[in-house]
Amino acid sequence: MIITIGNNKGGTGKTAIATHLSIALSKFKKKFY
User: Fold this and answer.
1) Mean pLDDT to the nearest integer, 5-20
2) Does this model's pTM top 0.85?
């Protein structure tokens, strides 16, 4: 899904992916650390 979103929206899709990754990382850090 991430790849298709990036291909469809281009730059905006990449920034959205970056934000989702940062949010996911923060959630994982809260769970494990």
Assistant:
1) 65
2) no
